[in-house]
Amino acid sequence: MITGEKMKIRKILCGILAGVLICTGNPVISQGKVQAQLQVVRSKTMTVTLEASGGRMVKKASVAGTVTLPSDRNGSDYTFLGWSTKRGQTRNPQYQAYETIKVTRNMHLYPVRYRWSQEPDINVKNLAANLDQYSRIIFVGDSRTVMMGQTLIGQYQNSVSDKVSFICKGRQGLAWMKETAEESLTKALKAAEAEEGATAVVFNLGVNDLIHRRGTEFDYQKKASEYITYMKNLAKQLSGFNCKLFYMSVNPVNTAMKHTRKESEVRGFNEALQKGLGDRYTWIDTYSYLMKFGYTTHNEFRGGLDDGLHYSMKTYKRIYSLVMKNLKKS
Fold first, then answer.
1. For a tag site, which of 30, 65, 116, 195 has the least CB within 10 Å?
2. Residue 142 has what DSSP assignment?
3. Helix, strand or coil for residue 167?
4. Cα 129 vs. chain centroid, distance in angstroms?
5. Confidence band (pLDDT; 50, 70, 90) for 215?
6. Domain boundaries, the chain
7. Residue 1 above 50 pLDDT?
8. Terminal CA-CA length for the chain
9. CA-only gyration radius of the chain, Å
10. Three-state SS for 98?
């Protein structure tokens, strides 16, 4: 039962609210109409329903009418790529994980899952040998580059290693580049001067500098600025060599599998680097390629482990193939 005192308070509050609505162009003259208008406002809250691997999930739009989409786990035979309004889509998602979208109507989204059985096993044996523009190709990177090199040399031996070399180490980033890899790269470029033709240098670093350690906040834009400053200075130092510099995008991760990294920050880091490096580097957008056509995370070098970070040999060969195509166009 509502006491007399509580009834007075309710009337006062309804009167105040009615006055506010009148001032904003919504004249209301009774308590009943005020409550009806409040119900209309509530009913306009939009939702996004997601068919996630753990079950159906409903996210309400914020006051600004937006929803940030979550990531989802990979399965035993597929890679989660993002979300789509179409059920059963396997590539090229409409929306990516941690993308913030504007919601103007209730939406129903389905996971985009790239089936590992879809991935072709391509032959990249002679791609480097047939690349006449460059006498040598040097890849500089982290564990992903290590595994790409292991894949290529393991399957093709001298067909790759005669022309392609790798300066790389697992779990490394910008600090390693400054302290160790720069010197190794300089020595390799000096050695290549004896050969006819230019050397292509392909950098692929960054994913290990985008880590949230112990749940701390992380400023990926600041880290991107550090990379841009260093890489521009490095380009000046290397200008005396007959080489062309390329930067390969940081490739996709899955936050649901590797909680220390976020997809949105990888995308933001890539955007900042692509814009900031300028014409001293040719950008190779392998990230968009993998999101559009799919990739697999069944990693043979770790006993088939899917850690949301490393790829299968098939995917590493496809990344290498795309790089070679970009080098050929240059």
1. 30
2. S
3. strand
4. 31
5. confident
6. 47-115, 134-329
7. no
8. 80
9. 27
10. coil
HSE-up of residue 307 (Cα within 13 Å, Cβ side): 13
Give the model confidence (pLDDT) of 46-76 as tens digits.
Answer: 999 999 999 999 999 999 999 999 999 999 9
Angle value at C-alpha 295, between 199 and 177, nearest 5 degrees: 40
Q: Work out the angle between the directed axes of helices 313-329 and 286-293 (0-180°, nearest 10).
A: 130
Measure Cα distances from 219 to 55, 134, 211, 269, 309 in Å: 32, 37, 10, 10, 20
Q: Is 225 exposed, middle or buried (0-12, 13-18, 19+ CB in 10 A)?
A: middle
Reported as a pLDDT band with limits 50, 70 and 90, residue 298 is very high
Q: At what angle do helices 263-276 and 220-237 cross, to 10 degrees?
A: 40
> Tokens standing for 193?
């001067």
**Dihedrals phi, psi of 173, to nearest 5 degrees:** -155, -140
DSSP 28-95: --SHHHHHHHHHHHHHT--EEEEEETTEEEEEE--TTSEEEPP-----SSEEEEEEESSTT--SS-SB
H-run or E-run covering 311: none
In angstroms, the CA 83 to CA 135 distance is 43
| Predicted pLDDT of residue 28 | 47
CATH code of the domain made up of 134-329: 3.40.50.1110
What fold, for 47-115? Immunoglobulin-like (2.60.40)
DSSP state of 295: -
